[in-house]
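Researcher: Going back to the complex we discussed earlier. I've cleaned up the inputs and rechecked each line, so this should be the final set. Can you rerun the prediction on the complete assembly and write out the structure?
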Amino acid sequence: MNRRDLLVPACAIALVALMAGPVGAQTSGKFVDRLYFQLDAGAQTATPRFTSNVTFKLNGEDGSFTARYRFVSAIAVAARAGVRVGGNLGLGVGVSRFVRQGEATVAAALPHPFFFNRPRNVTGVASDLKREETMVSAELAWLLRPRRKLDVMLFAGPAYFTTRQAMATRPRYTETYPFDTATFVGVDAQTVNKAGVGFTAGFDVSYRLSKRVGIGSLIRYSRAMATFSAAPGSNARVTLGGVQTTAGLRVGF
Amino acid sequence: MVRGMFRNRRLSIALLVICLAAPILLAAQQPAGRQDRPREVISRLADDLRASDLEIGRMVRGNRLRLRASTPDAQLVGRVHQRFDQYYGGVRVFGGEMVRQLDGTETVSVYGTVYDTINLDTTPAIAAQDAAAAAARMAGAAGSPTRTPDLLIVPREAGGLTLAYRVRLATADDITVYFIDARNGSLVSSYSDLQTDVGTGTGVLGDLKKVSTTLSAGTFRTWDQLRPAAIYTFDGKGDLTRVKAFLAGAVSFGLADTGASPYNTWNDPATVDAHAYAGWTFDYFYKQFGRSGLDGRNLAIRSVVHPVDRAEWNKVPAGTLNLYYLNAFYAGDGIMVFGEGLPPDATVNGYKWNYFAGALDVVAHELAHGVTDYSSGLIYRNESGALNESFSDIMGTSVEFYFQPVGVGYLKADYTLGEDLTNPMGGFRSMANPGAFGDPDHYSKRYLGTADNGGVHTNSGISNQAFYLAVEGGTGRTSGLSVTGVGPASRDKIEKVFYRAYTQMLPAGATFALARAATIQAARDLYGAGSNVEQAVTQAWTAVGVS
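Model: Rerun complete. Updated structure for the full complex:
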């Protein structure tokens, strides 16, 4: 997580706190809502990078390539709902989803068509390696109302992730006789579907605009591990989740 | 108003459901199947496999999928690969397939491409023979169907599916598959069914090599299409009568005469080496001199192995033994013939003789004759003939140094010709010491008789020695004159000098004196007057008595 990843949530939380400022002199209240709902949009600001190593047959010999994946920030949508079961304790569920574009820096060794042990080394960047990730979580929440219109919620719980990741399976390249060099042009990709169980934890700060409706901001960190196989015999251990920062509507009853 | 809205509990619950369901619905989106694009089936997970098994079962019961082959896995015992073809209205869908891997009764994987939506009439308007005739017209008169046309449902390149006959036609230089529209006889699409590939094989001396081949009609052929010049290696199958007819131009060798392998794994060492070494030699001339094949215009290279039956070696006339068993030769027009050698327990002159295609310097030597043929045309007798032979020796040795590690032994680069052919290791000429094989290393010792076209294989030693000294330096054994060579690291400079002189500067009737003058000039052209290359070449010729 870098400094920029924290900037958005920090600003959002500060904004909510600022709005709560004018009522700071008021006495804090007890969290009284029985049910709460949240509908958010925001950013998946950090998705862990990963590396996959693939071997493939080419020209009667084993070729190989390494793809180092990285992702740009993406819009995340999330919804949460829960019930206060007693005191400050709540139980809830959450769903979040993001689709983000990724790319991979590829370094490949392409066997020569005429000779053993004379690989052509090519490098390049492969784009359009999209990641789609949906997380469903069950959450134990600690609900606080430090000031009259300001709600704070700390939550954590197990999470189930389903992920679709476009994985590079083989480099594409051009070559001409005498084939001593080759030029990288892209990759063949295959979408891999994987699921993983992990956890999510975060906190939410919201400001009541009315008795039932408010706005809020949330930051959470989620994590699970999954093994992606881009090709037979090639497995990449991948961290799912990451840092998610969202803001949106808060409704309580 | 907002407050009022959320007082309604039903509305609140509906909102909650929508909030939770929206991302899930987004995640579950799948593109619908289209008629012109197959759906890919990739199943490796338990749930997917169950679904694919059910789908296969449904399609088989509905006669939309038929089992074509069930093949035991050669690599994993107990595994079986089932291949299903998709059908619609009793007609096979081209490219519609499911492939299921079973481990016993358990499904391990399912991969497939299936067309989900097909809607067309499967009754053809033209007969199969009409489609074959239409394809033959498109291919020209030379084309003839290799199989009975089959009726298929095929994707159009512009989109959609259509009913078409598949006609496979063999022409003089290609095998083409035509899809002929079964309604009106027009061309739907076509493609060449010749596929280049790279196989592997073991050479005469047991070394593993890559073999550039072409897949034709399910069989890999020793037809190299990766290089700019087509390279064919024909298997004479020991039928000398037919090989002689081929050399005389009375019969043509075609694809059926090339080496064949069902899996692109090559076990005939003579075929492997002839094919690979011809390619390497082509590469050498291209990379070192920028020359495009024997004629500079990518003339096809055609090698013949197994011209005779090895087992018959002691029953054939001496001429046949010497030419087709214990020799290799360039027959003109890019054709090489490589001797069969002897059975493992037979000896001639105290040596066991292996396949002549198994020596890189021998293969390159013969191909270099082709280069000479299409360049200076050095007349194959007397001094010009000796220069012709020497040029082939120089090129054969240079190709060895280009591709093999320097050293002593089999598959090593050295200045001995043909050392890889015999056991014990011998050879038939030495550039470092021509006298070791009875050849002259000095002009004063040249053979002046008429045998061997005026000693072309003998007097080549003079030019060979000059090349050697120009590279390595040393002292001429006969003259006692010392030469400062350019050194092994600069061997390529002397190669370029001799190539330039022998192919581009010498007349067909050249003499040793002309060869000296031309190589010195070539050294000046390439590396400047007074360069160490020019000095080395000059000293070398002087040391071998050519002035």
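Model: Worth noting: The first strand of chain B starts at residue 39 and ends at 43.
Researcher: Good, that matches what I expected from the previous run.
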